[in-house]
Design brief:
It contains nine helices and four strands. It has helices spanning about 15-25, 45-50, 70-80, 85-100, 105-110, 125-145, 160-175, 180-190, 190-200; strands at about 5-10, 30-35, 55-60, 65. The protein has a four-stranded mixed β-sheet with strand order 2-1-3-4. It comes from Teichococcus aestuarii.
């Protein structure tokens, strides 16, 4: 019998759901997955299913956890290897994960997650490009220090889960990236959990597709 449930949104579009889902799967929590189709904003179904009216939402062994970063931290209590073992590296990883959680609105608005589509050259607003430059700087420093292929070494961890939707966006919108960033994006995309997410997104009902995310803003 499952020990709880994880409520997420449409895998095609829900970047925050991907973060929570990756953390839960990396920690191997035994939970039932509940997918609620999104509609471009908060819906009555999501409001009824989650305390904050947003996804993801985790119930596990009597605990109720919402917000992606809180779910990541909860999972890391059960699977401490999700964060780097070294204290300084762990502090850096937590800092950039929190920066991802709180910022980069320009990128989010101009290049929404729509993982089965390709819009090369689109969405390159000044705000999005500034966010991309900052993200590339974060990645470059972490990968240089750790040796990669993931941000803090050989293991896909909590901080990679936080940046995974950015990799998805870059694959869809194809902004100009450094060789280092492109290699990291491919490493994320090739992870077994990411392959599973993409496959399950492709299997979602066509009725769940949202026109506003199925074309570039300029189309």
């Amino acid at each position: 019998m499952a020990e709880g449930r994880l409520v997420i949104g449409t895998k095609m579009y829900s970047s925050w759901s991907l973060r929570g889902w990756l953390a839960v799967r990396l920690a191997a929590l035994d939970v039932t997955e509940v997918v609620i189709p999104l509609a471009g904003g908060a819906t009555e179904a999501v409001k009824q299913a989650t305390p904050a009216g947003m996804v993801p939402y985790l119930e596990h062994r009597g605990c109720r956890v919402w917000e992606s970063l809180a779910i990541v931290e909860y999972c890391a209590e059960l699977a401490p290897g999700l964060w780097p073992a070294d204290r300084a590296a762990r502090a850096q990883a937590r800092s950039i994960a929190a920066e991802m959680h709180a910022g980069f609105r320009g990128l989010r608005m101009a290049m929404p997650m729509s993982i089965l589509n390709r819009f090369p050259g689109q969405g390159r607003t000044p705000e999005a490009l500034a966010d991309i430059a900052r993200i590339e700087a974060i990645w470059r420093e972490a990968l240089l220090d750790s040796g990669g292929p993931f941000l803090f070494g050989e293991k896909f961890g909590a901080v990679d889960a936080m940046f995974a939707p950015v990799a998805c966006r870059f694959l869809t919108w194809e902004p100009e990236l450094s060789e280092t960033s492109r290699a990291y994006v491919q490493a994320v995309r090739n992870h077994p959990l990411m392959r599973r997410w993409y496959d399950e997104a492709a299997a979602e009902p066509a009725a769940w597709r949202l026109p506003k995310y199925e074309q570039a803003p300029s189309a």
